[in-house]
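Could someone model pyridoxal-5'-phosphate with this protein?
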Amino acid sequence: MARINDHYLKLKAGYLFPEIGRRVREFTSANPEAKVIRLGIGDVTQPLAPAVLNAFRSAIDDLATEDRFAGYGPEQGYDWLSQVIIDKSYKPLGVELKANEVFISDGSKCDCANILDIFALDNIVAIGDPVYPVYNDTNVMVGRTGEADEKGYYKGIVYMPFTAENNFVPELPSEKVDIIYLCYPNNPTGTVATKEQLKVWVDYALANDAIIFFDAAYEAFITTPGIPHSIYEVEGAKQCSIEFRSFSKTAGFTGVRCGLVVVPEELMGTTASGEKYSLNKLWNRRTTTKFNGASYPVQKAAAAVYSDEGWMQVKATIDYYMENARIIREGLTAAGITCYGGVDAPYIWLQTPEGMSSWDFFDKLLNECHVVGTPGSGFGPSGEGYFRLSAFGDRENVETAVQRIKAKWGK
Ligand SMILES: *Cc1c(COP(=O)(O)O)cnc(C)c1O
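Reply:
Sure, complex below.
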């Protein structure tokens, strides 16, 4: 008898995006002439940078030759990629890393899930609310939680509300936690944390022997000077933090797939008998056993992001999205809608007007403006009364969407 992993049955059906799809289809079939603009997605829309494409193509050509053919590479990724990431992306922040502390992967979602492999089940985990659902659901899957209550909170997880009242930086939990997920710039709220705010968490982690999982998938979108791009900009973070990064949003790799995890050598966990053990060693063991590396042409394409030409092109696309974000944020603000985010992240998190629920606002926006966004309540109970608009999209569509919203809500 092959027993299944029953913990999967505790998961609530992936309800948010199918439900959005259902309501949009219902609307478009009733209103076939309506030009619906989708600002709900968390996926990039612009093509890869030319320098990245050239590197990608030339790496594929390598595979067509006997002398430049590449088979299995290092499971942890090629040193030439880790090193260029360190030199171009971490050194300028004043963060020193070694190549063996950077693990290249096929994307950050898998990394955020896989990291749980090297931690014991009885750790107490703290997760934001609203949140990128991967952190929550992967903890349910490994069996760290009980059942969900009627609000959607799982027993055994400590939820940290992210709301306008706390400026989207949660307070320290009142009970002791061992693992803390932080995502800045944040998805879905689009907000950031200052170095001082992150230091509170680093100090907590150091004092409590806790580990911070820091998801920096959107660090390249930061425009405000002084906002940390890496948790390691905070003193002491190397002793308590694992950082996740991705080429997905930075360089349009959502379909190409490449990410990375940083596990510093000095980072220690605790064994059952109370001794300190290197998490870098454990993650290396896990990686070499369960993973055979990101593909060679993908790693070549990723390295090209950091060439002078590549970075200029990638940055131009980021600027394009961030101009969209500005148009959305300023347009909505002018229409009297309270907005957060959209300055250092490609998401605008708005407070629904007239105290509407997230789903009521979704319906109104779809029916009256023909614009699709994402109900905040879909990211967690504390997202109720909020709504996410994405800046990934076409300029003309963004401008039209904002004009429609202004015409509807503007005074
Ligand atoms: C998009 C995103 C990622 C990146 O996922 P990939 O698997 O690398 O595409 C990671 N974290 C958050 C919060 C995201 O929104």
